[in-house]
Structure formats: structure tokens, C-alpha cells
Amino acid sequence: MKTDIQIARECQLKPIGDIAEQLGIAPEKIEPYGRYMAKVPISLIDEKRVKNSRLILVTAISPTKAGIGKTTVSIGLTLGLQKLGKNAVVALREPSLGPCFGIKGGAAGGGYAQVLPMEKINLHFTGDFHAVTSAHNTISAILDNYIYQHRKEGFSLREIYWKRVLDVNDRALRNIVTGLRGDGVVSETGFDITSASELMAILCLATSEEDLQHRIENILLGITSDGKPFRVRDLGVAGAITVLMRDALMPNLVQTTENTPAFIHGGPFANIAHGCSSILATKMAMTYGDYVVTEAGFGADLGAEKFFDIKCRKAGLKPRLVVIVATTQGLKMHGGVDIDSIKEPNVNGLREGLKNLNRHINNMQGFGQPVIVTLNRFDTDLDEEIDIVRKNCEDMGVGFAVNEAFLKGGEGAEELAQKVVDTIDNIQPLPIHFAYPEADTIEGKIEKVCKRIYGAAAVEFTKTGKKRLEAVKSIFANDKDISRYPVCIAKTQFSFSADSTRYGSPEGFSIRIRDIIVNSGSEMIVAIAGDMLRMPGLPKNPQAERITIVNGEIEGLS
User: pLDDT digit string (tens) for 67-86?
Assistant: First the structure.
């Protein structure tokens, strides 16, 4: 079987100006980054056209080590819609270097359903991640300098919330000490991965350059010795940070393996952030596409919940339906089958794993959304297994379609595309039923997500978690804005619970909240559940061991 890179090299890419013209954008309006990538000015977004576009969310069952292929399906569905003669555009997140060199090797789709040029998209792309990293660490440096320069005046922070970031999986940097040997004020701090930076969330939630700067000004850096919030505006550098982020604010235009337009922008993870591409990229795609396919990271309990409760609530977006991606191999793992045996027939394991799928279906219906399940087909799948999943979906009252875009491109996704079009044509747009009201308390919002979406029996706050919660309530007692912030729960992606080993559809578990973080720039409350970390580590054999250059060509990014 050909690798993703081999398939990508077979494709005849069009100049990015031609792709822009397909959308109706004059080539002189875009800012090319080489021959096949470009930035698109946000001034081209047309809110009237946005309202008339049909937005489709692609999400998935809880991921496993077997893989799911959500991005491949998102791209494939777009290709399938184009095959049906529809004007379709896909809007996706940007890959992070950390996972690319750690576990994934690449995150630009797969097979004949990719966004291209895949090597550049998976590596440095147009520099958005570097801009976020540089901007974030500039704030860190200026904050440390401010504390150092004003210490003789009695200024100090009793708590510093702002760390540093790096787009590399590096567990050794999770906890560090700075300022040793007289080089500044000694302080315990650490690194998060760039995808977890509040600036990444801000990039994805900002609606204009002015909104970007306003959000940057509001970033909470720490608490002063007299108990007052200390923000970026107090450093007086919000303008400088906005300058660093200015170009990154524009969505990136690329193309698929079948030369259809694709917007790739922003890259927050759904297990430690809100897991969605930018509002601006989504609205840009909706300006020029009659059908727009977007995805939310990891399983529906993480990405899709945050897509609705954070992104849609803030941006006023209303998707027309949800597509849940599943694989027989992933379902078998959720049914207790060992990863070494998931390619073998196992009807009992498959049926048991359907409990995970069905909980996700119920959750999406709880948001008021029509649901279609698509089985991302592998060559080892048996017709009997596919029929079991199909029958289950019929019993659940949801649509079902097989997706073979990995092997066949748009042709392999026509069944899914037709099911999507028929469903949208036969159902009026439905309002979103959010998991919690905006006016609920922080504890109330967390509890509703944990119980309604994850299925937890109880929510517990650790000693530190309680302390953090009470501090937030005390410090921001008179801040009406904080009270309306949505919650963003950082939790393992592998389970509905906070225990990554509990596959399937666990019950009777408790969710332990060990930290509460106020992100007043991105306007959300981040709750850290279980042992979740915001700086991943590398596996024993990282993908970096397999990435190299052979005869002038990059290998291993697949």
C-alpha cells in the first residue's frame, strides 16, 4: 500500500491563486506563502453568506490506539460533496509538531483524502504555531523582567499563572526553576505545549484584530501580593503581542488531493483546550462554501461538547448535523478486545464496543443535533461486522454510511455525502441545547458536563482544586464577565472517565478536579481533571525515529 506521502506526490497541485479563484476570491486579494499556500484577509468574511451556509460537524467515538481517521473522513466528506456537484469547503485545525514527531507522524488526513502540501502543513506551515509560541514567551520574558525591575518598589506576585510554551513534547520541562544564579527573581514555573497556550485559544476565538488585542489585554498573568489580578494590560505590551500575532490571525488556504479548497487554521487540542479550528476560518469557509465541513478534536465528549458550549455559543454558529466517525477496530478495543487481535473477527467484542458509540450518539442528540454515523472502512472489515454497526444505528434512529475515502477519495465518500445532503434537505435547522446555562456557577457547569456528557456519578474537587475554586470566587467576586464564562475541561481523550485505561462505556465513576484556571483572554474557565497534563511526553519510540530525508524527499510524515 502506498504511503500518504507517495499519494500526495502523485497529486497535481494547482497554484494557490487558482484555488482562490475557485472560491471566487481574486488572486491579488490573498497573501501567498510559496506556490501552494496563502493567507486570506479576514475582511473577506461576509456574515450574510455565513448564515446561508450549511455547517457540518465531524466528531468521533472515543479514540484508541487503533486510530479513528476523523480528519480523513472530514476531508473525504468534502470531496464526496464535490462529487455530488455541491460547493463544499473543509475547515480544519493545524497539526502540532509535538504529536507529529511523537505519536502521529502527521495530521493532514490520509490516503486519497488529504490536505496538501502535506509536508509543509505538518511542519512549519505558514508559521502560525511559531507566532503563538513567540508571542506567549515574549509575555513570559516581559513579565519576569517587570517583576525583576520593580522588586525594589515592593512589587511582587504571590501567584504566577503564566508559564512558557513550546511546540515539542518535552516532559522534562513540565516543572522548572528560573532566575537562578542572580539572573532574575527565582521562580518555579514550567512549560505547556503551544496548543495549550491561552494565545492559541484566543487566536481561534478572536473575531477581529481589535478583538484579538482586547483579549490579549485581558490575559490574567497572576495575583499581586495584595490580592489583585495582574494582566497583560498592566505590562503595557498588548499592542506588541498583537503585532506578533497579526499575520497568524488570517486563515490559511490550501487544497485537497482533488484540488478542492481547504482552510487550515489554529490548533488547540481538545483534551487540554477547546479543540476547534478558528472561528475566522470557519466563517471564511462558510462565506465561500454552500456546505462546510469542520471537525472537533478527539471524541465527541471532548471536542464536540466544546464545539457547542464554547465555539458555537461564542460565535453564534449553528451546525446542521453531526457526523460521528467509528471504526470496527476502535469499537472492538472499546469492547475489551486486545489491540493485537482487533483485525480478527470478533462479533461479541464489536457489539460490546457499540456502547461507546451509542453514548456519543445520545450526547449529540442531547445537543439537539441530527446524527449520522460513518464507518471508516479498513480492508480487514467484514460485511457481517459492518451490518452489525448499520443495524445498531438503525435501532438508534440515526443515519449510517460507509466511508472509503482513504482508498478512493471523493468517490469513496459519496454514500456519506448523499446521506448528509438528504438529511439536511429533510430537516429544518434546529437550535442547540447547550449542556449548561451561561448563568450557572462554575461548579454547576463542570458538574453538568461531567454528569450529562461523561456519565459520571459524582464530581470531586481535590484539596488544591477547592482552594483554586474558592480563590477564583473571591478574587473575581464582582466580575460579572467571569460568571458567564464557559468551562473547558482538560481530560484524557481515551475514556469518558478521567482514567485513560477505562475504555468502552464506564459507569459509576467520579471525576476528580484538581485545578481551576481562569483564562480571561479567551474567556473560559479551564478545569483540570484527573492526571491530565498540558505538556505531553514522548513515547518510548517516537515517530521522530522514522522521519528523515531519502533522495531529497521527506519520509515518515504519515
Answer: 899 999 999 999 999 999 99
DSSP one-letter code for 442: H
184: left (phi over 0), alpha (psi -120 to 50) or beta: left
Cα-atom radius of gyration of the chain, to the nearest Å? 23
Angle, helices 238-245/128-150, rounded to nearest 10 degrees: 160
Q: Is the pLDDT of residue 549 over 90?
A: yes
Q: Which three cell numbers stand for residue 73?
A: 473522513
pLDDT, tens digit (0-9, with 9 covering 90-100), for 32-45: 999 999 999 999 99
Alpha-carbon gap, residue 403 to 382, rounded angstroms: 14
The CA-CA-CA angle for residues 464, 309, 55, to 5°, reads 150
DSSP string for residues in 28-41 = GGSEESSSS-EE--
Residue found by looking up cell 482508498 in the block: 407
Question: What's the grid cell of residue 143?
Answer: 513579565
DSSP 296: B
Q: In the 8-state DSSP scheme, what is residue 460?
A: E
DSSP letter assigned to residue 242 = H
Cα dihedral across residues 195, 201, 205, 207: positive or negative: negative
The 10s digit of each residue's pLDDT in 472-518 is 988 888 887 888 999 999 999 999 999 999 999 999 999 999 999 99
Report the chain's mean pLDDT, rounded to a whole number: 95
